Please model this.
Amino acid sequence: MNAGLDSTNHEPREIAPGLTQEWLYDGQVEFFKLTDATREAIDAWIDATLESLIHWPVNRPYYGLVQMSTSAAHIIIVNGYARQRIEELMQSFPSISGYHAILMPRTVMKNVTSFVQRLFEESSRPTQIFFDMDNVFAWLDGQL
Model:
């Protein structure tokens, strides 16, 4: 469990319009669902993740999962502000290892996938991209 984090409530909570947060695997995985890529939703997602990492034990890997709707994924690709905030997240807390998993609909083009991977490649928490929730959970089961 994440001491200092509100990871005891496993119910999704809306932290901004178009963004919910939930803790999975008994508080080991921070799960965001992003259905709107407004500046407010992007800021809430990045700020909530940064807040979690502030309190994250350095000796435990961080697992972050973001499920993006098709429209949110496409907007993030062309939105310079969103890319800037994601880069800020990836450069933060390099001493914390772990992974970010991104779940996107299959309709998002393959070049979008490689673009997102490039955003995260400099991080100490490499990114895995998935198109199916069952595959995400199978991967998490193998990691945890």
About this structure: Residues 13-135 form a domain with the Hypothetical Protein Ychn; Chain: A, fold (CATH 3.40.1260).
